[in-house]
Specification:
Layout: H1 11-17, E1 24-27, H2 35-47, E2 54-57, E3 59-61, E4 64-65, H3 79-86, H4 88-107, E5 113-114, H5 138-154, E6 160-164, E7 180-181, H6 185-192, H7 194-201, E8 206-209, E9 213-214, H8 226-236, E10 242-247, H9 259-269, E11 273-275, H10 280-289, H11 296-303, H12 313-316, H13 320-332
Parallel strand pairs: 1-2, 2-5, 6-8, 7-9, 8-10, 10-11
Antiparallel strand pairs: 3-4
């Protein structure tokens, strides 16, 4: 999965997107101008291949929302934790509305899926996670996230949980550092993995592992660890969906070598698709030097990630359900947040 530099597909990018190793495109704020423009861009990407390339975006709300003008400004999902403590049934209903609204607005411009939800349990130490998490209790995170995913499904979008097996217990940011979590496997499995296990049992379609070394368990970050991806995720938890690497351009991935080594290591460990973002040169090197990689099982998994239920945006904005959802989420929001470009 690679990215684009601007509002349209350049000739060089068009050629790259035709490469057989490319399976998707991730969009960023720089690719967005308006709902009309992003619809045209997504349609142009989809027209390039059959079956079409997956189009994804990080669109959680709060600090991480790529498309703003013309979209509902979503608060961080951490706001739901306060409602849950007051009335967990009402909070779950609101979480479902939140997931539906996020997903249906993206589907209305053609985006296949958002890399959401965050399933990390917030331990109060990670600035990069913080209110991106549904809360500090595994049961609360599981309950709210399950409702959020139900809403996504109703809008025609499957979910991708991140950052397996849990990024909420270390302060370091894997975008700029190589975080190390020293906890035991038993501690991680009994708490942080709970939301992942719960959603896997409900048919979670995708998972993104963390660029974090869990040093008491393995010397490799989770996204490069066969132990975490195969033994735990595939075998113990019986996950059958897509494993997406986190961005291989991040500092947390540097432990695996240069960009080509990182891609090879992630795929060998068990990832189905690797992301190379914000570095066109690195993306080109991976495409030119990775070699042949064609896993039929991965392709079956990718098929689940395509968006369903065509949504007419003009009609959506007239619907009572959309208006009520916007009102409910605006009520949840307590104020503006700065975008976090992750």
């Amino acid at each position: 999965m690679i990215d684009l530099e601007g509002l349209e597909i350049s000739p060089v990018e068009r050629e790259m997107l035709q490469h057989p190793l490319v399976g998707g495109v991730i969009l960023f704020t720089r690719n967005y101008e308006s709902p009309e423009q992003i619809t045209e861009l997504v349609e142009a990407i989809h027209r390039l291949r059959s079956p079409h390339l997956l189009v994804a975006v990080d669109h959680e709300g709060g600090r991480v929302q790529r498309f703003r003008n013309g979209f509902t400004q979503l608060p961080p999902v951490g706001k739901l934790a306060l409602r849950y403590q007051e009335d967990n049934k009402a909070a779950r209903k609101l979480a479902e509305t939140f997931g539906w609204l996020m997903a249906v607005e993206l589907r209305s411009v053609g985006v296949d899926f958002s890399f959401a939800p965050v399933l990390d349990v917030d331990r109060g130490v990670s600035d990069i996670i913080g209110d991106r998490s549904f809360g500090n209790d595994p049961e609360m995170v599981s309950s709210l996230a399950a409702a959020y995913v139900r809403g996504m499904h109703k809008a025609g979008m499957v979910a991708t949980g991140k950052h397996f097996p849990g990024h909420g217990a270390i302060k370091a940011d894997s975008h700029i550092a190589c975080p190390v979590d020293k906890r035991s496997f038993e501690d991680i499995y009994s708490e942080d993995i709970v939301p992942f296990a719960r959603l896997i049992s409900n048919g979670l379609a995708g998972i993104m592992p963390a660029h974090v070394v869990y040093s008491a368990v393995d010397t490799s970050p989770a996204g490069f660890s066969s132990f975490w991806l195969n033994q735990v995720l595939r075998n113990q938890l019986e996950f059958q969906g897509v494993i997406f690497s986190d961005d291989l351009s991040m500092e947390g991935a540097s432990i695996a070598g240069d960009i080509v080594d990182r891609a090879k290591a992630a795929l060998k460990a068990g990832c189905d698709m690797v992301l190379v973002c914000n570095d066109p040169g690195s993306a080109s090197r991976v495409l030119n030097k990775l070699g042949e990689h064609n896993d039929p099982i991965s392709h079956v998994r990718f098929a689940r990630m395509h968006g369903r239920h065509f949504v007419n945006r003009r009609q959506l904005l007239k619907e009572v359900q959309w208006k009520q959802a916007v009102a409910a989420i605006e009520d949840l929001a307590a104020g503006d947040s700065l975008e976090l470009d992750v």
